[in-house]
Amino acid sequence: MIQKSPVMRKCISCRTTFDRNNLLKITNDHKLGIMLNQGIGRSAYICKSKKCYTDSKLKKKLQKALKGILNPEFIDIFEREIANYK
């Protein structure tokens, strides 16, 4: 039987490749808007290291990767979600 290799994705902050299960997925769904860890559409991934999710340029990198503008309420939700990883 053929073994599947893990799906690898790149963190938008540190540009390091990780297994998709070890990253936080941020998706810009064309109907539902921006979501965390779910949805289909343009996605960006951030690793769970403190250096990456506290990056001062993270908002700009997310806007560029998702090709859209982030709502201030999403930033609050994102910061609360990151607090769970500490």
Write the SSE topology.
Blueprint: E1 8-10, E2 17-19, E3 23-29, E4 33-36, E5 42-47, H1 50-53, H2 58-66, H3 72-83
Antiparallel strand pairs: 1-2, 3-4, 3-5
Note down, in words, how this protein is organized:
The chain has 3 helices and 5 strands; from the N terminus they run βββββααα. The protein has a single domain, classed as Hypothetical Cytosolic Protein, Chain: A (2-Layer Sandwich). The mean pLDDT is 88. By secondary structure, the protein is of the alpha+beta class. A hairpin with a 6-residue loop joins strand 1 and strand 2. A 3-stranded antiparallel sheet has the order 4-3-5, with helices on one face.
Structure characteristics:
two-stranded antiparallel ribbon, 86 residues, single chain, 5 strands, Hypothetical Cytosolic Protein, Chain: A, 3-stranded antiparallel sheet
CATH homologous superfamily grouping: YlxR-like
Radius of gyration: 13 Å
Number of domains: 1
Largest sheet: 3 strands, antiparallel
Report the strand count. 5
- In which order are the strands of the major sheet placed? 4-3-5
What's the total helix number? 3
